Amino acid sequence: MTVPPRVTGAEREALRRAQELALRGTGEVEPNPTVGAVVLRGGEVVGEGWHARYGGPHAEVAALADAGDRARGATVCVTLEPCCTTGKTGPCTEALLAAGVTRVVVGCVDPAPGHAGRGLADLRAAGVDVEVVGSPTCEAVLRRFTDALARRRPHVFAKWAMSADGAIAPADRTRTVLSGPEAHALVHRWRGAVDAVLVGVGTVVADDPRLTARGDEAPTRPLRRVVLDPRLRTPPGSVLATTTDKAPTWIVADEEADPRAADALEEHGARVLRVPEGPEWTADALEVLGLEGVRRLLVEGGSDTLGRLVAADLVDQVACFLTPARLGDDALPAVAGLELGGLDAQAIAQILRLQGVRVEPVGPDVLVRGFRPVREDVARDG
Ligand SMILES: NC(=O)c1ccc[n+]([C@@H]2O[C@H](COP(=O)([O-])OP(=O)(O)OC[C@H]3O[C@@H](n4cnc5c(N)ncnc54)[C@H](OP(=O)(O)O)[C@@H]3O)[C@@H](O)[C@H]2O)c1
């Protein structure tokens, strides 16, 4: 017979609040779980926190910081079992113990292998009173996280700026700035909170971009810059190939691509990753990045790259800046294969099959964002 959890009304209410807080991280932390935490002392809320940024502090750590000294002897109600391992941040179990927390109420157990139940065991072993509620709502908040656990490729976050007539660049591909400074600031913040940023070689040839994170907030990770370049067309003199002392550059090429081209790029410090030719080259390339430790990937275009990723159902999250510019009939479509010109935000979201859609003004532009549905067959090798 299972024993029902011993949880007070104040703790249930705190857990509900923690679920609300968890949702504030939606779109910022995937494939990490969205998590919220509330610190209770004598039934009163003395601290709140959530996992707000990929690579940033976990919810418990944020809530403990909010509570300060009042965390000593307090109860922490958290939607997900506290982690017990060092990832991008230290173990939350240790932070809870260091803060002198005496009771932890957990919404649900961490489904990740290597975590499941270990955090709870560590806390109990240290004398903390631990209660697991087994909340279906907390589990629902974690769905995207559990889906991501089933696959090896990174979480793919695709962003682009698009003219009102649905283009990403003019017909002659001259470098054109479409979005405003507010959008640029947001993109630099996103670059600071991913493991890697990726473009197709067409963008490297046309724009010779830097792809570094130049936001106000310090990056949570050393940013890798990745080029999908099956035939190794990346110019050895390009900014990406010649600035590897500032940030690593990885070029993903076909196995058969010219070894001399690879040598020229590697001489500058770029790394060439080889992926065997085949019908699933795009998915295989992403899997290679996953094996190299890339868990959150920001894809910044161009048209062909976005089109191939969308067509192969390999995009998890989208951010599209709709800008007032017009680039004309012959311009390059934002996502090759999709007609997005002249549509409003809701129609664009529908064509992209987005869920959880958010539409908001960002300076002179409109940001449309959402998630693509999870594929049924996410685990390609079972
Ligand atoms: N407005 C924006 O937000 C934005 C953002 C980025 C880029 N852009 C613009 O977009 C333009 C470039 O777009 P684009 O469509 O010409 O080029 P692209 O998408 O940057 O690169 C396409 C090329 O990359 C390789 N590639 C990419 N994904 C691949 C895959 N899954 N499988 C195999 N090969 C893959 C192929 O190289 P091979 O041809 O060698 O096989 C392909 O031709 C530029 O003008 C740039 O300014 C705009």
Low-confidence stretches: 376-382
The hetero compounds bound to this protein are:
NADP nicotinamide-adenine-dinucleotide phosphate
Strand content: 15-25%
- Rg over CA atoms, rounded to whole Å, is 23 Å
Query: Strand count, sense and closure of the main sheet?
Result: 9 strands, mixed
CATH architecture identity of the largest domain = 3-Layer(aba) Sandwich
The CATH class designation of the largest domain is Alpha Beta
Can you tell me the overall shape? globular
How would you name the oligomeric state of the polypeptide chains in this document? single chain
CATH topology of the largest domain: Dihydrofolate Reductase, subunit A
Order of helices and strands: HEEHEHEHEHHEEHEHEHEHEHEHEEHEE
Q: Domain count, please report it.
A: 2
Give the strand order, joined by hyphens, for the main sheet: 11-10-9-8-12-6-13-16-15
Mean pLDDT: 92
Helix/strand class: alpha/beta
Helix proportion range: 25-40%
Put simply, the count of helices is 13
User: How many E strands?
Assistant: 16
Within CATH, the superfamily of the largest domain carries the name Dihydrofolate Reductase, subunit A
Quick recap:
With 382 residues, the protein is α/β, with parallel strands linked by helices.
